[in-house]
Amino acid sequence: MNRSPSKEGHGSAQKKNAHIKKAYNKKTGPRKRFGIKPVSLAVLLLALGVVGTSLWNLWQLQRQVEGRLSYLRTEKAALVQKQEQLQQEIRWLNDPAYVEQLARTQLGLVRRGEIPISPKK
Question: What keywords sit in the KW lines (predicted)?
Fold first, then answer.
């Protein structure tokens, strides 16, 4: 690994030249730094505006759907409770003892041989 000083100097000069060659384009001269053209900036801003508007609309739609879903869940719970009440009423109406009780209390019916007693008004 014993290099002579003249070879080391030559190697670093090649690196500098390579760097200069990379930064130089034969057709256009020295490379320009990356710059954003006004048209590109306008297109980018327009795209960001469209995306932002779409995201805003999606967010609002999601809030509406969540509100509607909450309302429907509440309504479903109320309907399930009503269904249970109606099923219980069906079971009662299929019970002969309950039907007899309704006939006696609401319609004032009596069995054969019974004497109806009613309070004075």
Answer: Membrane, Transmembrane, Transmembrane helix
pLDDT for residue 11 is more than 70: no
CA distances from 23 to 10, 16, 27, 37, 77 (A): 20, 11, 12, 21, 72
Tell me the one-letter amino acid at 65. V
Which sign, positive or negative, has the C-alpha torsion 11, 13, 19, 22?
negative
Measured CA distances, 104 to 15, 47, 109, 115, 119 (Å): 113, 79, 5, 12, 14
Residues sharing a CB contact under 8 Å with residue 36, sequence separation 6 or more, in sequence order? 44
- CB neighbour burial string for 66-97, b if at least 16 within 10 angstroms, e if fewer: eeeeeeeeeeeeeeeeeeeeeeeeeeeeeeee
Closest CA to 89 of 78, 99, 80, 100: 99
For the whole model, what pTM was predicted? 0.49
- Band (118; pLDDT cuts 50, 70, 90): confident
Q: Exposed, middle or buried, 104 (CB in 10 Å: 0-12/13-18/19+)?
A: middle
